[in-house]
Specification:
This is Transporter. The protein is mainly α. It contains eight helices and no strands. The longest helix is centred in the last third of the chain and has 38 residues, at 187-224. The relative contact order is 0.13.
Length: 231
């Protein structure tokens, strides 16, 4: 195994570990199925991608088609609309119904299937669509980071901001930039991409946890009738 392949495996394992660990925690600790399931979807995609890479399976492999679908799933609706709706649970006290949860993932499945199955027919408009939804999501994540800063969670605000900036850079270059010296499978690009996606899930979970704790501190006086509780 070359150093490049080793770095790819490490970056992928990092993303998979973060996705499964914090996806389960989102569901178990916060009943946030939107973020929890999406984190698990990303981790599942990473697991499939890791096996695909280690086996050096070809583009005719079912694993490649599955990876392509999961990639489209998350880039179109998963780490865009679903991410925003999930984070709104702490930023806006939004409580999505089961219908919204199911509908969001159904939409992601349909859009992901169309964009992955008919990628060649759709062509450039599909790639532009990914960038547009990422820009819109980035605007919300900047707002999310600012809200963290305003409530005094400045460390989490900085990390969320850094993760968002890195994620935007990856999304902007995904389909349009080839790193000089990279191979046909874009291994170098994916080392950066997988590391970034892992960082995003890690930073957003910790930021969400801090925001949720702040909300509970704010709510405490209303429940107990006492003065504001400090951490």
């Amino acid at each position: 195994m070359s150093i490049k392949e080793l770095l790819f495996a490490v970056a992928d394992i990092w993303m998979v570990a973060v996705g499964f660990t914090y996806g389960i925690k989102f569901i178990r600790n916060y009943r946030n199925y939107l973020l929890g399931i999406e984190w698990i979807v990303v981790a599942t995609s990473g697991t499939n991608f890791l096996i695909y890479g280690l086996l050096k399976a070809g583009h005719d492999s079912p694993m490649y088609a599955f990876a392509y679908f999961l990639d489209a799933f998350s880039r179109s609706v998963g780490i865009t609309l679903i991410l925003v709706l999930g984070l709104m649970k702490v930023t806006h006290r939004y409580k999505p119904s089961a219908t919204v949860d199911v509908g969001a993932f159904a939409l992601a499945g349909v859009v992901g299937f169309v964009l992955s199955t008919y990628a060649e027919e759709i062509g450039t408009p599909g790639k532009i669509f990914y960038i547009v939804v990422n820009v819109l999501t980035t605007c919300f994540l900047i707002y999310f980071s600012k809200r963290l800063w305003d409530i005094g969670e400045r460390g989490h605000a900085v990390w969320a901001g850094v993760a968002t900036a890195c994620g935007f850079l990856i999304a902007a270059t995904y389909d349009f930039v080839h790193i000089p010296g990279d191979d046909a499978e874009h291994t170098i690009f994916y080392i950066f991409a997988l590391s970034t996606w892992g960082l995003q899930m890690f930073a957003y979970y910790r930021a969400y946890r801090a925001f949720d704790a702040y909300n509970k501190r704010v709510d405490a006086p209303a429940v107990t009738g006492d003065a504001p509780v400090t951490a």
